[in-house]
Design goal:
Blueprint lengths: L3 E4 L3 E5 L4 H8 L15 H18 L3 E6 L5 E9 L11 E7 L8 H17 L3 E7 L3 H9 L3 E2 L17 E7 H7 L1
Parallel strand pairs: 5-6
Antiparallel strand pairs: 1-2, 2-3, 3-4, 4-5, 6-8, 7-8
Helix pairs in contact: 1-2
Pfam families: Acetyltransf_3
Organism: Altererythrobacter litoralis
Protein name: GNAT family N-acetyltransferase
Amino acid sequence: MGDIVIETERLVLRRIDESDAELQFRVLNTPTVMEHLGGVKELHEIEAKHAKSMAWFAQRGFGFMMMIEKSSGELVGHCGMKLVDNPLAPNQGDHEIGWLVREDRWRHGYANEAMRAVIDWAFATIGVPHLVALACDRNVPSWRFMEKLGMERRRDLDFDDPAYDPQDNPTIQYMLTREQWEQAQ
């Protein structure tokens, strides 16, 4: 199963390895899933993102992980944490969480289960001071989920990204502080 980082009731979150790019390309890289993320990616783009995540883990002890369903052994998504690295973001270097779930597993609670575990890991194990999550303003399910996770909108961190279509701007951000997380425990 690879390098397991986090285990939940229904999921194993494991480090990405070089063989995962093709799997992600086939399972997660659909027009619907990638609609608000710049569209379907080429295999080499996924390989580059995976290489970056593997480097994050090697250098910093965190990154993005593959979400594996325990009952079937199938890939249901990916999630994790990285540093905000968009050069247009006003908060480069903040710890950013993110997730992606394959379409046939939407509304099964996998993102919620995985991200609550990632948030706990980020604060309790990695020791981050706060977390942010980014989405485009029209991706209502994503930012509503951020609110469900206890995150608060930070309009002062919004920015436009010309790499995305105009309808996918601005990029908006939500934040969860260590104090907010501790109070919810």
